[in-house]
Amino acid sequence: MAGMLLLGSRRYSSWSLRGWLAVRLAGLDVTEKVIALKGGGRTTEIHVRSPNRMVPYLQHDGADVWESLAICEYCAEIAPSLWPEDRIVRAHARSISAQMHAGFRPIRQNCSMDVERTPAPLAEISEELAADVALLSRTLKDALLRSGQPTTFLFGDRMTVADCMYAPIAIRIHTFELTVDPVVKVWVRTMLDQPLIQEWYALAEAEPAEWRLLY
């Protein structure tokens, strides 16, 4: 029996994108249910349907899983290649994935994900945001250059949980033209060209016009 993956509007829901990527990469048989986000925590349908009142929320083979990183970990149990094979490299990947889950608040607060927004730099960047972007750039660069040469994805030639967790960040870097290391810029372009990300963009564009939020 197919499971269910509850998502928020694809145009805006960065956390939904993270869980969705992991589910797709793991090949889980799920039906996707998308709920329009209303902003300001007013999406009551999600409150009723999700244990933590947020998206994404996965039901699969008797398991109920919420929080994007938990969904990624669940998917990696089914598809172990979602983490690097080497123990030490896997520890690095887990660390920066948890760092994304808990941190980079200035970027998330000032650079909201909107996959249909025309790329343009912010009019003003605070010291706090600039420091956060610099930390982000170092974090991603260190992963990409861990082996001494740039890798296609954060930890090798295939997407891992780390790429799932940072995929919305790639979109933000592109949308707000954030200043990052050239190595990171190449990874951003690779992520944006990835077929699953392209599919997400297309699905976002196909959502009802009335789902668009007013800024």
Characterize this entry briefly.
The protein is built from nine helices and four strands. The protein has 215 residues and is of the alpha+beta class.
Secondary structure: elements and pairs:
Layout: E1 3-8, H1 14-26, E2 30-35, H2 44-49, E3 57-60, E4 63-66, H3 68-78, H4 87-102, H5 105-110, H6 127-144, H7 161-175, H8 182-193, H9 195-205
Parallel strand pairs: 1-2
Antiparallel strand pairs: 1-3, 3-4
Structure, explained:
It is built from nine helices and four strands. It is globular and about 45 Å long. The longest helix has 18 residues, at 127-144. The model has no long low-confidence stretch (mean pLDDT 95). Helices cover 50% and strands 9% of the residues. By secondary structure, it is α+β, with helices and mostly antiparallel strands.
What's the shape?
A: globular
Classification by helices and strands? alpha+beta
User: Strand fraction band?
Assistant: 5-15%
Cα separation of the termini: 40 Å
Could you tell me the number of beta strands? 4
| Order of helical and strand elements | EHEHEEHHHHHHH
Low-confidence segments, given as residue ranges, are none
Q: How many helices does DSSP assign?
A: 9
Q: Which oligomeric state applies?
A: single chain
Protein name: Glutathione S-transferase
Pfam family, one: GST_N_2
Organism: Gluconobacter kondonii
